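@channel anyone free to eyeball this complex?
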Amino acid sequence: MKINVALLLLLITNYTVALSEPDYKFGKVSEEEIAETKHPLEPEAEAAILYKKERVYYDYNIDKGWYITKEYHYRIKIYNKEGFNWATLQVPLYVSGGDEERISSVRGYTFNLVDGKVESEKLQKNGVFVEEVNKFRNKASITMPEVKEGSVLDIEYNVSSPLYWYLDDFLFQYDIPVNNVYLRLDIPQYFFFKRYGKGYYPIKLDESKERRSIKINYRSNNEADQLLGRTHKSGSIDFDENVYEVKATNLPSLREEAFTNNINNYRTALKFELASTQFPNRPYKNYSLSWEDVAKSIYDYDDFGPELSKTKYFEEDISKLLQGEMAMNEKIMLIYNFVKSRMTWDGYSGVGCSKGGIKESYSEGVGNVADINLMLTSMMRYAGIKANPILVSTRSHGIPLFPTTDGFNYVICGVEVQDNVILLDATERNAYPNILPNRALNWMGRLVREDGSSSSINLVPVDLSQETHYLQVQINQDGSVEGKSRTQYSNQFAMSVRNNIDTVDETVYMENLETEYGEMDITEYDLKNKRDYSKPLIESCSFSRENQCEIIGEDIYFKPMLFLAKTENPFKMEKRIYPVDFTFPRQEKYIIGINIPEGYKVQSLPENVTVQLPDNLGKFSFNIMSNGNTVNVNVSSEINSAFFPANYYDVIKEYYKNLVEKQSEKVVLSKI
Amino acid sequence: MRLPHVLLLFISFQLSFSQNYSYQAIPQELLQNADAVVRNDEMRVVILRQDLMEVSTRRVVTVLNGQGDRFVKAYMFYDNNDKINTLEARVFDKTGKEIKKIRQKDFFDQSAVSGGTLYSDTRILYLRYTPTHYPYTVEFTRVYTTSNTAFSPSWNFLDGYRVSTQQSKFTYRVDCNIPFRFKDSNLEEYEIQKKISENQIQYSGSKLKALEAEPMSPPFSDFVPNVRTSISRFHLEGVDGVATSWQDFGKWMHDKLLMGRDYLDPQTIKTMGALVKDIEDPYEKIQKVYEYVQDNTRYISVQLGIGGWMPISADEVDQVKYGDCKGLSNYTMALLKAVGVESYYTVLYASNNGQKRSIDPDFVSLQGNHVFLNIPLEEKELWLECTSQVTPINHLGTFSDDRKVLKITPNGGEIVQTKTYGDEENHQVIKAEFFVDNTGTIRGDMTIQSEGIQYDQKFRNTFKTKLEQEKFYKNHWDYLNNISLRDISFKNDKTAIQFQENIAIEIENYIADSDGKLLFAPNIVNRNFEVPRKVKERKRDLVIARGYLDEDEIIIHLPEGYRAETLFAPLSLETKFGSFRAEISEKRPGVLLYKREILVQSGYYPKEEYQAYRDFCKKIAQFDNSRIIVIKP
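replying in thread with the prediction:
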């Protein structure tokens, strides 16, 4: 199924809310606000943001150049002790080269109602800390005094940023409800930002223009001025500013539940991305506007395109590797395996190669994702294969809904064979062509060609990943079972099992397996195709387990899928407002042959059943039949899409309910 | 006088170790069950003055697989008191050939503020190295000096499970005539030599094989070889201290870290006076004051310099209404004093993983990771946890129960024992009544009364949102699919420390219909599944850290006209680990009564008993799942 991006991307609408604007002057907290014991719309909330104001504007200084000032005002209500965490604000401060953001003018008051009277306590210096987290980031923490159940906190601070090209996302939705938000940005005509909204809650962005004048003082370099001692001069710059405003009320809280890609995809937020600059007497400079532009500008980064075009460092090795006649597919696999075995991923993401450059990474055998997959791309091209890098945003980084250069944080390689693009990621030993690590299975990627042109590529697998269990089981009179098992894993399933096997010692793996199925004895364990990625991984063993069956009176009861039966519905909550994400489409199959003990006969079997999801998106079928002293079971469950919009939640939940119930039903054997 | 830097370099120990870092040189027995082998681990500590200690370490680890990376441990925590002279790492391949050298400036420098702490001045320097092939070897060398001699070093000959040690050497020397103490433990079964002289101790061990973790085993530190040291006059963040006896050490803590920090604004003292007006009984006074602290403060941890050891003054906590364990305990102590109740600042090892860790009573030194209050009332000794807004008076839970702690009084320190929960004190009683209908649904309600450690496990549910409560119960009863929670209410009796849950549930399709026979398990709401994992050759004792007693009584009304057909025979198990009894009967036609009682007894049991314990658990797990058959005759 294809799902339109528009499902997620909420365009900035003209939806208007009638605002009866309450007064949120700093320090003017009303008694009603403090007296309130529950949030009127979400009585369960532990805290609420009564008001959030963010005001952003530019200034110019002859020494510093352009810089941004961001003024914040938060009014936070604490309803109960669970909400105490909201009495501490953490403010990230970015560091880029020698430039760093700084926090100043921190002011705060805590308001409480004491014996019917409003009392306030001022935030002192000892409640503010600035910490150097690492060389990329500092962090300010502000913790408020005298916080109790019912407290209202008023907090103001400014952040001054020399990173004038960068505006952080403006968040409107949190774990707790937000009553009122006001955002205003004043952006000089010289900067043009592209604006994007996301999330399920509509917001309206107002635009207007204002005239602005900045006074500047400077030292004259003019010789005549210097002779006359008139070096201090002042003047002013006059320009237009674009003013953007957002006013929103009553944004509901949004919390994360199971099977969610990344909750931040669904929270209401606004993003500003610098698209171009046009300074007086300077050429127009374009940054990014479309996906094409984004791709092109990343391609032009020093640590991307130029690194990709280097070939010298590997030429000798690759030529040796590709000696003799061979088919293109063979070449692709040889190069891919060569990079996988030579390179180890250092765990870093990003679209740029590491500082030392791709060549150094190659010689050390360690690199970040760009080093490894650009090197792979470059080698493919060297071998005459049509290969291009594909920009990706990982699942933890969120879905890139709109074209921004920081929307991508990962890169893989795409090889064009006939009309198909095969996706390759060499950061994981257990990955394979078109089998990417889960982190990369996020929506769409952007394939960038040598000429800078680009196109969008679906990253989510279309093929089903399969897990097939074959069991041959003997049931004994005492309720124990023994038998042989063979399990076949393909695609994403195979990768994840191979990863598991690689991360633990074999004995530990076996123990985990025995515990996973509860009190099982496993012998003759064998693994096939552990390193032959072109084939499904096959795990086989003999097993025995006590107490698999229930003995009630003279009868024996057992679940036809035995220990493989699913006993829990993963979907527990009543409602859901955002999509369900299975990461990849999947099929699980169970083919089970059961011999019943001598002297018993099948008294009853569960009924056969088929359950379908609408639009052919999924199917569960359960078939069982008995023949003399054997019972044959054939069960399959297919989820044909990785992604389901929230309106499918009820049917998915129902589907799993049926699946679990059916799998818990029992076969009854009685004595002949 | 400050020692010039050059002098220190001479004292630094010589790198005399003849190196053969090849994987081949590892004896076979050290590779068994190991993810890494510590090839050589050396530490040399020289106390130069009461306020100057030099520490030199070199650690060589061969990592055998990805799980072993964590044993490299090439990092160093530091703050303003530490001066790093050398910090360096070298990496070797399988054959022992050097492949990389990492200098101090290439170590990753990051603030070491851990979760739960808002700010601390501690930082960490660590090696970020991505191994390309296994096995590989890292040699990590560091030399530093510090003025904090209070952190007298200790030495472990084994670093954890699944790691072996080839060579390990620890040297501790005092060059300034300050008396020192040391204590070694669990050396017996290992090849460890010691050389003790007047001002120096030296331990060297070799060939310590890797150990495997076992479920329900004693804490690791209780059975692996280690050496600890302590010096009788030390220095801590600008303050000199003494540790000759618990008495003296406690006196020092009291005089240097606590005295004078209990000043309170007269207005606050007045408020406290008003709070306990007309109350004579000290327990009631404590109740009032503790309630005041719980309602008005919150936990925020800031660790700066001596502030890591000295509480923020009571006056300051009074103003901002937050603090860490030290600050809040000291504040509560001051408030109690203002109403005439004497309480004592008490240092302990608190634990979130349920392990009971004591202050080592035989070894006077800076120990502990937490502070709370002790109040000896005439009839009863009380404990107050001041960092929690919800814990009742004298409820310790698994966080602080049953362990030795250091109580600080104006006369000095004293080691005392905290409250131990007896097996029967951790008591849960369930009374439930259920109705089965014709569609296979069962519905009913129950009260669950919990005390002791079982109180600890549940009372926080009161403070959760409805959604989180729902999650908790759906997870708690994850074996019941299609469960709907109809009604949840709680009674939290903080005085008696009893928690009562009143819950109404409905379970669709709980009853299986097989040709007119209805099958279901009468144990609906309290099944034990936990069976600890099988261990092939158990090496260590079985530890049941805390026992408990559960008593359930469930009445089940069958649908109109149904009668019991097959009920299970009563089961009664008596073992040294405890007992289990369950029975079901038809009280009157169509009404069943299910009774269950389980008692688990805490204690240390010899390793040979492990299998028997598992059998006990298995039998219960099986029996709890047993179903019965009812029919319409």
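from a first look: The first strand of chain B starts at residue 36 and ends at 49.
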